[in-house]
């Protein structure tokens, strides 16, 4: 009763002839809240760690409105709700557009992609039947073929057309790779992956009711083809059918390492095994003439995972699952009378249900298609090259400083380092170990809690490393220097007072 | 070279201190393109059917830009790309905000929800670790508990806290219900569902490596508890373990019918079976004091599917999977060193990886939380009541007209009807059958092809029906009358000339 006029704006629809007019003032409120939130945060993430963030969120959610809580009895209206909650989430974000937010494969989206995504939300096409998404489904079909051809090349001469499905990300794409192998070879299929493979490969096996993957050693973070050959030559540990799926990785989550794809493809071919390559991270190097050779052999895979919400600068989700021949996707075909009745399909209505394991599905392809057109292949190539170049620059800074040990020259855009002169791993005694694993973990958490930097972590070679995953093409040398200084300062503050002094084990 | 300045805008980021400023002009372009597209379409969907839409999409994608195609060599810049492709998808949309677009559970999103979704895209939190989504993950936790309590009530006294996971929709939520049953009872678990259950229950069984569900008759579209009792009392057809999961439906896709949940819960309890209720469609009746009784018994389920992208007016996706005790979700727990290392979890960083089968995950909760706060429980209740009221109004119009046969009074917001006086089913001879199944299918396709209406279809009782799924709370009586007149006209035009005349078998 109190706020009838305020609440009226909350019932307007985003679509139809009047949708844009309804959206205009609300979107203005959102943009203001985003700007205010970024200003209030004034750093890569909010200060105070989980407890402080939970307190601020709780306070806003309880609010001063009637009823309080997440679901009040009476609404406060669209404008007030947007200002409060968008502001809250913006102020409390870990913002990947900040150069000091560099832990994960968590990219800062391009404004053009985020703007396109608004249209997806407003129009709300659902990609499970043509009559919910006429133009969007056609745009998806064309875009999927174009991206699959980027991976596999155009193979029109052999009568095959590369194709891709849009997924929620690498996890779903890897699951599809495993699922197609299961459908081809039965539940006895052997899964074989490197110890560097993404956790989603193991989760897919569990989900799909298969034996756990057989794990091949990955010394220095990449799959060893000789070891792979040995595993494939040996019997199935799990008593499977003997037909195998090899999963290789082009861009590991830990180190951005790329498995030797050509050699892996050779080994797989020799054993008659299928090959799925998880190129969620590394795949977009295909845009670049300079960097494409890093992925040589990718085109020999039976299926490929590719995420454009990593090196592709899309808002989540923009996953793809690509195959060299669209016919390989047929095991996903599925019928539901209300969505793709036989007589409708015969009458020419496209059958979309086999293009996903989901039913209702957002048109994530729109932002992707807009981005490809806005930037072109060369524009995307430049962003990929700038980002990988920044990683090489950071690695150079690390290598030049005796305080740090660099894991390896980056192949993609991940840089791993740790305090030099501490060969031992395994300790988890926080700062007390001065520069060992405990301190690496603790420095990361302190920088997080202080709202100063978002660093990642990786366990490799039995030791814990700081992980900097650079996905911001705009990052500059000065910001990389500042990041290292932050870590140096936090490590010094972390080290316990004592004979080693304020710098702990870190050489000055 | 040609368009350096035009392309510069395509590299701006949506986040950071300057993100809002970068978004502002691009969002203005999107809103203009949405308005222009709706005007050009001037109806519920584009004219000409799949071939015409494909031709228009192809023409725009080929475009006049250098290189042409989905992925041109050189980009055209953000503004030009947005104008071209958002305009294309808007003009070629099946717009659920149009009252004559009423085939599917495909809702017109609220402007407030679509605006909030822009913030999700711009900030790009990823919900798989706290350090990618500090405030967003906390907001999700609070919102999930509140919605789960809407389903199950607050049961603090018993030491349990209801909880929910955010999913991509009913398909994923149903899959989670089946997965938890598999984890509890092993791969021999018996799945038992009505013949009215959603196709995703069958697909989940296939995906998860289980025997197909045993199907219980659903005369008149709802699960028969007596028949269910008989199936559960009998042995497992598939040789399973005997422990069963019963899947009931609160709002079928075909007719919006609600299974007798209390009786089904009684039967399941008698046999020690778990109960999952797919309330993807009907669940939001819980917001309404008037309509909540339709769902009596829902709170006795072991798990519940709920979609707020149906009666909840969210852009896709806004799925939920709710359980009466959050501890039931533990089988989904999962570890990945880089996302939830033990020492990080012990140090207080929230562990989010078990809250989804996905890894990277968009904060779909933001738009939901904003909508709940903007409208309040009562605001949402009114929208649900208006929508269900419109369905009763349409059913009244159908029932009052001797030209039509009404399937049943709507329980939710779906109305099924067909030409009266044609008891026979099975024919698929298009218009030639004058008013039988073939004509029903053909009229639907004609209205689609002419861009005049988006009607659904359902096979029930051996006959084909037109399906009107009303999800637009703003629909008015006059528009419902117009919809029926469109169908009447198309049926008359469809009927073959001959002894029965232009009206075929339809009584005048």
Q: How do you describe this structure in short?
A:
The structure is a homodimer of 508-residue chains. Chain A is α/β, with parallel strands linked by helices and 508 residues long.
Biggest interface, chains and residue tallies: A-B, 177 and 178 residues
Low-confidence stretches of chain A: 498-508
H-E string of chain A: HHHHHHEHEHEHEHEEEHHHEEHEEH
What structural class is derived from the secondary structure elements of chain A? alpha/beta
- Principal-axis shape of chain A equals globular
Explain this structure:
The structure is a homodimer of 508-residue chains. Chain A is 41% helix and 11% strand. The radius of gyration of chain A is 25 Å and the shape is globular. Chain A folds into 3 domains: 14-93, no CATH class; 125-363, 3-Layer(aba) Sandwich (Aspartate Aminotransferase, domain 2); 376-493, Aspartate Aminotransferase, domain 1 (Alpha-Beta Complex), CATH 3.90.1150. Chain A has 508 residues and is α/β, with parallel strands linked by helices. In chain A, helix 2 (19-41) runs parallel beside helix 4, helix 13 crosses helix 15 and helix 14 crosses helix 15 (477-494). Chain A has helices at residues 4-8, 19-41, 49-62, 78-91, 111-123, 134-152, 170-185, 199-207, 225-233, 261-270, 337-340, 342-346, 365-399, 437-449, 477-494, and strands at 163-167, 190-194, 214-216, 244-249, 274-279, 303-307, 319-323, 404-406, 414-419, 456-460, 463-469. In chain A, 64% of the residues are buried. Chain A has a 7-stranded mixed sheet with strand order 1-7-6-5-4-2-3, with helices on both faces. In chain A, strands 8-9-11-10 form a 4-stranded antiparallel sheet. The interface between A and B is large, with 177 and 178 residues.
């Amino acid at each position: 009763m109190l706020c009838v006029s305020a609440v009226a704006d909350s019932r307007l629809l985003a679509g139809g002839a009047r949708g844009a007019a309804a959206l205009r003032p609300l979107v203005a409120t959102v943009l203001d809240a985003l700007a205010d939130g970024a200003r209030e945060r004034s750093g890569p993430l909010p200060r105070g760690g989980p407890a402080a963030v939970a307190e601020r969120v709780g306070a806003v959610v309880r609010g001063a409105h009637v009823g309080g809580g997440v679901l009040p009895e009476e609404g406060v209206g669209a404008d007030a709700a947007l200002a409060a909650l968008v502001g809250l989430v913006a102020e409390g974000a870990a913002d990947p557009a900040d150069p000091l937010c560099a832990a994960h494969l968590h990219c800062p989206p391009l404004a053009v992609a985020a703007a396109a995504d608004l249209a997806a939300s407003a129009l709300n096409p659902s990609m499970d039947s043509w009559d919910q998404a006429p133009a969007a489904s056609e745009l998806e079909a064309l875009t999927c073929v174009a991206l699959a051809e980027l991976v596999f090349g155009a193979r029109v001469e052999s009568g095959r057309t590369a194709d891709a499905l849009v997924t929620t990300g690498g996890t779903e794409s890897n699951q599809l790779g495993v699922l197609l192998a299961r459908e081809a070879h039965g539940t006895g299929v052997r899964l074989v992956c490197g110890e560097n493979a993404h956790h989603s490969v193991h989760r897919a096996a569990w989900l799909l009711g298969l034996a756990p993957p057989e794990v091949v050693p990955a010394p220095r973070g990449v799959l060893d083809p000789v070891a792979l050959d040995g595993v494939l030559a040996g019997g199935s540990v799990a008593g499977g059918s003997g037909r195998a799926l090899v999963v290789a990785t082009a861009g590991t989550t830990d180190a951005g390492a790329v498995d030797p794809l050509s050699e892996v493809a050779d080994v797989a071919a020799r054993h008659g095994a299928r090959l799925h390559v998880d190129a969620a991270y590394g795949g977009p190097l295909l845009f670049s003439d300079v960097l494409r050779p890093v992925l040589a052999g990718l085109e020999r895979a039976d299926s490929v995972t590719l995420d454009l919400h990593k090196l592709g600068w899309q808002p989540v989700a923009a996953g793809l699952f690509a195959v060299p021949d669209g016919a390989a996707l047929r095991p996903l075909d599925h019928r539901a009378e209300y969505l793709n009745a036989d007589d409708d399909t015969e009458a020419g209505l496209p059958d979309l249900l086999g293009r996903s394991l989901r039913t209702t599905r957002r048109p994530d392809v729109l932002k992707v298609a807009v981005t490809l057109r806005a930037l072109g292949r060369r524009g995307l190539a430049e962003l990929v090259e700038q980002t990988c170049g920044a990683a090489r620059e950071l690695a150079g800074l690390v290598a030049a400083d005796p305080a740090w040990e660099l894991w390896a020259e980056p192949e993609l855009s991940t840089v791993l380092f740790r305090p030099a002169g501490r060969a031992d791993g395994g300790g988890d005694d926080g700062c007390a170990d001065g520069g060992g694993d405990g301190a690496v973990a603790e420095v990361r958490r302190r920088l997080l809690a202080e709202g100063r930097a978002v660093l990642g972590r990786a366990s490799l070679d039995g030791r814990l490393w700081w992980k900097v995953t650079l996905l911001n093409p705009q990052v500059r040398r000065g910001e990389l220097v500042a990041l290292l200084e932050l870590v140096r300062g936090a490590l010094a503050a972390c080290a316990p007072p004592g004979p080693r002094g304020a710098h702990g084990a870190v050489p000055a």
